[in-house]
Design brief:
Blueprint: H1 2-19, E1 28-30, H2 44-52, H3 72-82, H4 104-112, H5 132-142, H6 162-173, H7 193-206, E2 216-218, E3 222-224, E4 235-238, E5 246-251, E6 255-264, E7 269-277, E8 284-291, E9 297-305, E10 311-319, E11 322-329, E12 353-359, E13 362-368, E14 371-380, E15 386-396, E16 399-404, E17 407-416, E18 420-429, H8 437-449, E19 465-466, E20 471-472, E21 480-482, H9 485-488, H10 491-500, H11 503-520, E22 527-528, E23 531-532, H12 533-539, E24 545-547, H13 548-565, H14 572-586, E25 591-594, E26 597-599, E27 603-605, E28 614-615, H15 616-633, H16 636-651, H17 653-656, E29 664-667, E30 673-676, H18 681-696, H19 701-717, E31 722-723, H20 724-732, E32 744-745
Parallel strand pairs: 1-2, 31-32
Antiparallel strand pairs: 3-16, 4-5, 5-10, 6-7, 7-8, 8-9, 9-18, 10-17, 11-12, 12-13, 13-18, 14-15, 14-18, 15-21, 16-17, 19-21, 20-23, 22-24, 24-27, 25-26, 28-29, 29-30
Helix pairs in contact: 2-7, 3-4, 5-6, 10-11, 13-14, 13-15, 14-15, 15-16, 15-18, 18-19, 18-20
């Protein structure tokens, strides 16, 4: 019985509470406008209402920055707008207010109304911080507040200037300020944006200029990465990346556009914007938008800081109409690293991941990279030659974003510690880069496994990768990175594109074509920019030099890629490299066995007259290029040069075969054979040679058939496996029975 007696009054009270909605003040729920004005922010209601009224605004990066101090010029503008003061004509009253000043309207209007006066030095003080006591006086004058006669005072009244004692007292009488928790007013401290908004809001409510609205509750925004608003004053400069969205560079330094240019390439166009940094001579921020033929684009951002002072610059994007925002990270696949005898330890890992965005325009994806902080290394030689590398200091996750309703703020952070370069890139498409999650996962997983041979540190001038320890200059840390021509061309990507037609691979290929053009410069062939100490010790030559294998692979890449994309210049690289090979006999840069049988060296030094060794894989690659050029252009000089190489191989066939069936790596200029051959690479080349001669002159086949059997037999006996190219190649030439035992590899060892 007692339980019922207690329960009935409680139920009755609850029913009364529910039936009287006027007693319950519900919060209005809406999306955040600013990333730093949230549900826990003490002045969120006042800030939101004044923003809705158009009295105050936030910053371009959708922050309000409540703790930033209000300047006198800003306060004048805000009061002129809030009070709807009439326009006042310019008067030469203040030294720091010109007819073109951004504070002209506020200064003239508030001066005319007697709200603001000038300073003793004849200035308005537009850039001076507004103190709390000054704020009290201007609000009292602006809203014509009068002394109520109430005796009020703060514990630090003695610190308030005589000229502002009245304003502070009246402001307290009207309850617009209650002072600090300790009973003080703190008159000399500057007023921040949040406090000024609250004081202005209270004054406008009392004056009947605003109606107090219901409390506000924000929907919780969604973030990716460590999104952290910058609470200090920042400078912004807009970068014209897209017409639909806004992109800014943000820093606590002034940034000024120094140069802008458009650089067209055969299959892409660069829009380059270079910004100077005030107070930091020679420090530059370069933003390069690389437009691709399919409408996708790369954005490469570089902060180059030769000064000792640290600096942070952010690339900030503001996008509207966002419905969904999801990141698929590479980190879902753990990376197992090792120390390679040739390359040492590679500290670089992978991009961050693929950001998928559903918006009013549809579903698009971005590949987002980390930032890479490095420094330039150079070694100059007495002959004027130069070798260039970089020392990689660190890579960092530099991307974060926040979605507030339909608006997304994305930040790409570039932080320089001084004397360094910071790079960051992303690839953006209005379409899906990968047609399925399975395709995307397959690429991510492959990239993690083969992290040493997959590009991740892209720049507008090409990708940087860990270099062999036998290069110079090599930093003491061992973290020497450079532009490796074999990785500038995206050979693996070409194969995957031919198999899948995925948009991401298409974009990487377009980018690779542009990078190869940039690397080549005004020459018709490619010279390395890094010195190999292995070659320097052997032949005493340095960078730059032509590596025949690199040029052969690039010619093939451009040929196949050009055909895949319908490029009119698809065979230009093929012709140029074939011509370079043909020229070597006339230059005397060959090792002749007879007048019509000779080897072409692996390397052509640019600054020194040196004849280097010939390795079997370089030799076969060059011969195959010459045969392709003959088929493409029908010039007999290409066939003549290819035949001279074939004849030399035939004459030395028994010398090339090692006792275990493998092939020697190289033939030195003195005729000596030496070195352990690549595991798989040369067999791939032998198969290609067999195919090329099959189409041109079948009488040349026997020597290559015997060498294929010998090399494949060696691999089979030692269970060293095979590559996908070897497997498919043996099938094409009807020699599948020679497929070596062991595992299949995507990349040749």
């Amino acid at each position: 019985m007692k339980k019922n007696i207690i329960f009935i009054p409680l139920l009755f009270a609850l029913l009364i509470y529910i039936s009287l909605p006027q007693l319950y003040v519900s919060a209005e729920i809406q999306d955040q406008r600013f990333s730093d004005v949230h549900n826990d922010f003490w002045a969120k209601d006042e800030v939101t209402q004044l923003v809705e009224e158009g009295i105050i605004n936030g910053y371009p990066d959708l922050q309000f920055r409540p703790s930033v101090s209000i300047m006198r010029g800003q306060a004048a503008n805000l009061l002129a707008g809030a009070l709807k003061l009439p326009e006042a004509p310019y008067q030469p009253v203040f030294k720091d207010v010109s007819p073109k000043s951004s504070h002209l309207r506020g200064a003239m209007a508030t001066y005319q109304e007697g709200i603001f006066g000038g300073k003793p030095d004849g200035t308005f003080g537009t850039g001076d911080q507004l103190t709390r006591e000054q704020m009290a006086s201007v609000i009292v004058r602006a809203f014509k507040l009068e002394d109520t006669g109430e005796d009020v005072r703060f514990t630090d009244d003695n610190k308030i200037s005589e000229s502002h004692k009245y304003g502070v007292k009246v402001l307290m009488q009207h309850g617009i300020t209650t002072g600090k928790e300790d009973g003080s007013f703190d008159p000399k401290s500057p007023v921040n944006r949040a406090s000024f908004v609250v004081f202005l809001h209270r004054a406008m409510i009392q004056a009947g200029m605003l109606e107090k609205e219901s409390p506000i509750s924000f929907n919780k925004p969604k973030t990716i990465g460590d999104f952290d608003p910058i609470r200090f004053e920042q400078q912004f400069v807009e970068v014209p990346i897209t017409n639909e969205d806004k992109t800014f560079l943000r820093s606590n330094h002034y940034l000024q556009l120094v140069t802008k240019r458009v650089q067209p390439y055969a299959h892409a166009t660069d829009h380059v914007y270079i910004y100077g940094v005030s107070g930091m001579k020679s420090t530059r921020v370069t933003v390069t938008k690389r437009e691709l033929p399919n409408g996708d684009y790369f954005v490469f951002t570089e902060l180059r800081n030769p000064q000792r002072l640290p600096i942070r610059v952010d690339l900030v994007q503001i996008e509207k109409g966002i419905k969904e925002n999801r990141l698929e990270p590479y980190s879902k696949y753990p990376m197992k690293k090792d120390i390679d005898d040739t390359f040492g330890f590679d500290i670089a890992t992978s991009p961050i991941g693929v950001l998928e965005t559903v918006s009013d325009q549809g579903t698009g994806q971005q590949m987002i990279a980390k930032s890479y902080r490095s420094r330039d290394l150079e070694m100059k030689y007495p002959n004027g030659a130069l070798s260039q590398t970089r020392e990689l200091h660190d890579e960092k996750i530099a991307h974060s974003n926040i979605v507030m309703g339909p608006n997304r703020v994305t930040v790409y952070e570039l932080y320089s510690r001084g004397y360094d370069i910071v790079d960051q890139w992303y690839l953006s498409s209005a379409e899906k880069l990968f047609s399925s999650n399975q395709r995307m996962d397959a690429w991510m997983h492959e990239s993690i496994i083969n992290y040493k041979k997959r590009n991740k540190w892209y720049t507008a001038n090409g990708p940087y990768n860990k270099m062999a320890t036998t290069i110079e200059p090599m930093p003491a840390s061992g973290r020497g990175y450079g532009r490796n021509l074999l990785l500038v061309k995206e050979d693996r990507v070409m194969l995957l594109y031919n198999q899948t037609q995925e948009r991401y691979y298409e974009d990487l290929l377009h980018n690779s074509f542009a990078n190869l053009t940039i690397f080549r410069g005004n020459k018709t062939y490619w010279e390395t920019e890094v010195t190999s100490t292995y070659l320097k010790n052997l032949y005493n030559f340095t960078a730059p030099f032509v590596d025949t294998r690199f040029n052969e692979q690039i010619a093939l890449f451009l040929y196949n890629g050009g055909k895949a994309f319908g490029h009119k210049d698809y065979n230009e690289g093929l012709r140029n490299y074939a011509n370079l090979l043909v020229q070597q006999q006339k230059k005397g840069n060959v090792s002749a066995l007879t007048k019509s049988a000779y080897y072409i060296p692996d390397y052509f030094p640019a600054k020194q007259q040196v004849r280097t060794h010939t390795s079997m894989n370089h030799l076969l690659g060059g011969m195959n290029i010459l045969l392709m050029a003959y088929q493409e252009f029908k010039d007999p000089i290409y066939l003549q040069t290819a035949s001279a190489i074939e004849k030399a191989i035939q004459l030395d066939e028994k010398k090339w075969i090692r006792s275990d069936g493998d092939i020697w790596y190289k033939r030195d200029p003195n005729g000596q054979f030496a070195g352990r051959d690549y595991t798989h690479l040369t067999l791939e080349d032998l198969i290609h040679s067999y195919e090329k001669w099959s189409a041109v002159d079948k009488t040349k086949l026997p020597v290559f058939e015997r060498m294929i059997k010998s090399k494949a037999g060696y691999l089979n006996k030692n269970k060293k496996g095979y590559t996908t190219k070897i497997k498919e190649g043996l099938e094409r030439i009807n020699m599948s029975n020679l497929l070596p035992a062991g595992a299949e590899h995507t990349d040749a060892l």
